[in-house]
């Protein structure tokens, strides 16, 4: 280095200087590409984690709604059996079936409310916050033309 901060190139051939610059630019581009890949991979991992978290909530809510649907089927079955039993004869079996149907109705209602509440919490807004653009790479690449200009 000389006193003014420039590299000492006296005695170095132009071909060697061009070779050094080409090698340095090649190294810089490889490093920038590696940085861009690392940034994109990190952002993709964040997006994957967020989708998995929201999908888990959706699955749980859907399972509860399926349980509510099954409970609804049971209500229909036991109400039908209860009505049939009560109309067929006034035997206690019809009233027992009615009690079972009411219990299934309560189970179905609870599962429905819980499932609906869970599905309402699904939120993909955090996915919008993930920037697919490799910011560091863009920033450092913008500095390359200035670094190539002589002062």
Radius of gyration: 35 Å
Number of domains: 1
Number of helices: 4
Please give the share of residues in helix: over 70%
Task: Tally the beta strands.
Answer: 0
Please, what is the average pLDDT? Answer: 78
Describe the structure.
This protein is mainly α. It has one domain. The protein has helices at 14-88, 92-120, 125-128, 135-148. It starts with 13 loop residues before the first helix and ends with a helix. The mean pLDDT is 78. It comes from Modestobacter versicolor. Keywords: Coiled coil, Membrane, Transmembrane, Transmembrane helix. Residues 30-57 form a coiled coil.
Throw out a few tags for this protein:
single chain, rod-shaped, mainly alpha, 151 residues
């Amino acid at each position: 280095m000389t006193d003014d901060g420039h590299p000492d190139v006296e005695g170095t051939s132009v071909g060697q200087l061009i070779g050094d610059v080409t090698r340095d630019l090649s190294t810089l581009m490889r490093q920038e590409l590696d940085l861009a890949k690392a940034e994109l991979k990190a952002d993709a991992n964040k997006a994957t984690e967020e989708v998995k978290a929201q999908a888990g909530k959706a699955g749980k809510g859907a399972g509860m709604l399926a349980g509510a649907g099954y409970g609804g089927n049971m209500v229909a079955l036991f109400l039908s059996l209860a009505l049939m039993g009560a109309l067929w004869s006034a035997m206690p079996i019809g009233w027992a079936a009615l009690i079972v149907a009411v219990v299934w109705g309560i189970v179905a209602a609870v599962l429905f409310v819980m499932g609906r509440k869970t599905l309402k919490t699904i939120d993909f807004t955090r996915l919008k916050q993930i920037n697919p653009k490799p910011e560091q790479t863009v920033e450092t690449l913008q500095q390359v033309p200035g670094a190539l200009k002589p002062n």
